[in-house]
Design brief:
The complex is a heterodimer of chains A (898) and B (215).
Chain A: H1 6-57, E1 61-68, E2 71-76, H2 79-85, H3 100-107, H4 112-128, E3 132-137, E4 145-155, E5 158-168, H5 170-192, E6 196-200, E7 206-209, H6 211-217, H7 221-225, H8 231-234, H9 238-248, E8 255-262, E9 268-275, E10 287-293, H10 295-317, E11 321-326, E12 333-336, H11 340-344, H12 348-353, H13 358-361, H14 367-380, E13 384-391, E14 397-408, E15 414-422, H15 424-439, E16 443-448, E17 453-456, H16 458-464, E18 470-471, H17 474-480, H18 484-498, E19 505-512, E20 518-530, E21 536-545, H19 547-569, E22 573-577, E23 585-588, H20 591-596, H21 600-604, H22 610-613, H23 616-631, E24 636-643, E25 649-658, E26 665-671, H24 673-721, H25 726-753, H26 756-761, H27 763-777, E27 781-786, H28 795-816, E28 820-827, E29 831-838, H29 845-851, H30 855-866, E30 870-876, E31 880-888, H31 891-897
Parallel strand pairs in A: 27-28
Antiparallel strand pairs in A: 1-2, 1-5, 3-4, 4-5, 6-7, 6-10, 8-9, 9-10, 11-12, 11-15, 13-14, 14-15, 16-17, 16-21, 17-18, 19-20, 20-21, 22-23, 22-26, 24-25, 25-26, 28-29, 29-31, 30-31
Helix pairs in contact in A: 3-4, 24-25, 27-28, 28-30
Chain B: E1 3-8, H1 12-22, E2 28-34, H2 37-47, E3 51-54, E4 57-58, E5 61-62, H3 63-73, E6 78-83, H4 88-97, E7 101-104, H5 109-120, E8 125-126, H6 128-146, H7 154-164, H8 169-176, H9 180-194, H10 199-208
Parallel strand pairs in B: 1-2, 1-3, 3-6, 6-7, 7-8
Antiparallel strand pairs in B: 4-5
Classes of the chains: A alpha+beta (898), B alpha/beta (215).
Chain lengths: 898, 215
Amino acid sequence: MGDYWWVPLLLLSNAIVVLIISLLVANRKIRRHTSRLNQVIRTLREQETQLSLIYNHAREFLGLIAIENDRFIVRNLPDWFIHQITTEQLKARDIPGMELSEFFLNAMKIPVEEAEFLMSKVRLAAESGKRIHFEGKNYLVKSGIADSLMIPVRTEGTLSHILYVSRDITREREWQRDLRQNEEKMRLAVQNVPVMIDAFDQKGRLVVWNQRCEEITGYTAEEMTSCENPFELLYPDPKYRMEVDRMYRGSRNSFNEETTITCKDGSKKIIKWVHRADKFPIPGWSDWGVGLDVTKRRKAENALREREQQLSSMMHNLPGMAWRLKIDKDFTVLFVSQGSHDLLGLDADEVLRKNILPKDLILPEYHELVKQETMKSVSQMQSGELVIPIRSADDKVKWVYDRFKPTRLSNNEVVMDGLLIDISESLENEQRLQLAIEGAREGMWDWNIQEDRIELNQYAAEMLGLDERTVEKASEIFFERIHPADAEDTREGFLSHFKGNTNYVEREYRLRSSGGEWKWILTRGRVMERDKTGHAIRAIGTNIDINDRKLTEIALKKSESHMVNLMANLPGMVYQCKNDKNWTMRMTSQGSLDLTGYSPEEFLTGKVILGEIIHPSDREKVWEQVQEAIKSNSTFTLTYRIITRDGTQKWVWERGTQMPDGGLLEGFITDITDRVRSEERVMNAVINTENAERERIAKELHDNLGQKLTTASLNLHALRGSNLKEKSLKQLENGLDCLEAAIRDSRNIAHNLMPRNIEKFGLVPAIESMLAEIESASELKFEFYNNLNSHRLQKILEVNIYRIIQESINNIIRHSRAGNVSIQIMKYSDDLILTIEDDGTGFDVGAVRANGKSFGLDSMMNRIDSLKGTMNIESSARDGTMLTFEIPLDHENEDSTS
Amino acid sequence: MKMRIVLVDDHKVVRDGVKLFLQNDEEFSIVGEAGNAVTALSVIQRENPDVVLMDLSIGEDDGIELTRKMLGENPDLRVVALTMHNDYQYVQAMLEAGAKGYVLKNCDENELREALRTVMNGDIYYGEEVTKMVMNNMAHQQKNEKTASVTFTPREKEVYKLILQELTNQEIADKLFISVRTVEVHKRNLMEKTGAKSSTGLVLYAVKNNLFDHP
């Protein structure tokens, strides 16, 4: 038995070997298996990390969709969501495993189209294996906007899941919108803030130029930003521009400079620029700044500084010493001007340094007075004045005139400003003057009031017509001799002064001299002594003969008041005006109201303008005549028409002249309408008589002489048939020729005296007939135009117009060498214009008029004057001559004479 | 048979002269005379003459009126004006009144005879001088009628052109070396002629009537 002990051992060892082998095999399997497990774990861990990341980041929603056999199955959903969608019919446990499209439609109740949209995104993610990002409605909470991601998940290389991540971004979008709106608001704010804002981008280009910048500079944002270098616009001077450039290169943290810009309209402005871009960075603006227009402030500052300098220079150059005192016990000096040097012998700063007080300067006996006066002035806040002696540094006593005024400073403190002027010299002068008076031609008097006795100097005695120089019962004699009209006032003046109510007495009055005539005297006097109760004891004074002065003065006053009265009462308007076409009034007397209907105020304020109320036809004439008179330095006399306030026309006469300084015109305008009317009547009567006479003669010539001549001619003609000797026949023929000529002449003379066809057929046919006749007998060609339309004018007008045309044509034929003449008669409602144009050689109007060799013109002038019209001649060698006649139509007389 | 003539003239010398003139003539006989309108009318009614030699101004009476009146009563009457008036208007007025001849008093006897013969034959007679004058006037009138619408003087045309160029009165005055007042006168006349109320109206008128080639 012992021999087989090795068999179980062998079996065991075999088993062990097998076991080991199997163990080894198993181990390898296990190891292989473990490595696979590890791989899965690693993948899972990766996915877990990924998922946890997603979970962490996607706060809102996360769904896991599995892909199984190309179908999308819902796997995992957040609990809150499942809770939200579960109902009676749909249990939470039913949800995992649902097909996605079914889930969308039935569980989430998304409309078909939108579910399809989501499905398409899922499919896209699955097909492309890429994340699909989209934004849309938030279906999970059924409102707002969601930002969603479909993330494909791979397991072992194959696409196994889709993660559906969705996030509500409604708020975010709102914030973004708010942000945009805020940005917009900011931009508007920047545009419209009442300060200048400019900004530059990284390249240094100007990108912001707000409205205020535009307003101040005049350059629009467009102009500025489109400009290569906007500084060239703002700083046109290259030197200054370089300086500004350099300035701008400084730190952006504390940039604080002023520049002088040139605006679009060329004006200069001072701008204070503050840049804080480093401290307050704004994205997109590498530099930005704020500008303030400080021009006015600077100007005001400069003006103030200048004013200050000016004042201080004035202060220091004052004829005297100015100072400012504190109102305290000692009146401490706060300021003193350089005048102290002259007045006190001390420099201004020395006065302040040594703390010299007014009481150190003013003589002690005046201290109380000065103090009282000063305090009185302060309490009443009124200025005051004193004459006081002061002691200067070199121990001289000087009399000063002290004028002082309390001033309230801005801090409400009251100080005393004073000015001291040295009057020692003038006081001395006055004393000297007093001495001089003794010997001068002034009457001195010394009146002992209590004894009523006056001592007079020689001159005063003479003035009063007295022999003796001492007068007893002085007041009686004195006041008795004063003119009754002046006595009361003079007596009152003296008494009031004697009572101490006035400082002195000064009166002008008439005094009867010894010769009995009145003489104007000026008396100045002052009480020199008073008794203890204040009664005047003694007064002295002067009498000055002011008779000549006074008489002149009175005469002047009289003439002045006379002038004023005269002016007010003149039947017309006195004026002073500028020499311009408006005749702009500087002074107008009350008479303007009567003359024109406009008050002096209306003239002075320009509400009405003389130049405009002058009749339009006369304006040019008035202007020319006045200018001509001024040129020749003489007065002008004018007659013209004005249109008054109520629209009536007045004839006025004016005489005026330029004032000696060559400026304003002075003169007088008066209404001569009545005169003109009566003149017109007289003139018309004269002309009518003349015309009647002409008519009579013409008729006489025509009818009597003419008829007789004609008869003679007829009879003599008859003789021709009888048997006459040849010689007699010839004589007869001669006689007949002469007779023919005589008949023609008489007819022509008659026609010239009074063209009878005017009266019978009217002006237009008469002119036409005249023109036809002249045309046939000369080279002249006429154009005749009129708008009378067979309207008849006054007879006198028709005759004169006919004559004027006739005379003009005569002149043209004789002098002008014209080929064509245009004659026009244009009738308007209140005037008539006759123009005669020719294309001849023209003539020198001035010379012809000046030579007085112009019978043609003179006769025309007379005619036009008689019609109150105007004649204007314009002539040149190039354009020929044009005569313009303007004739006012007088409707008043129209009916009576036509 | 002799031509029967009545003389109407307020001057006896003339009547005597004419009588002397035509006296002892085989052709003519003066059958009556009158020195005023009333007498003239009764004489003519009484005598029923062939021809009346009529002065145009018979004292206070008007020969033209008288002619019209006579012819109104007796249209076959032949009236010849014998007058000193050699104005076109008189000729025109007389012919309008129905006169058949117009003879000036300074005519010679042949002319008068010729006139009487012509009107007797039913024709119209003017003397040589009268004919010339009538021709002149008619020529002138025709010319005026041709351009009767609106005509402008050379100056007016110049001013008009400058108005079209929108120049002010002052500028026009400076350009033409005339005064502003004259420009105003021209402008006023232009407006009156064209019926324009303003410068714009003038421009419109110029365009409408194609006044200037290049306005």
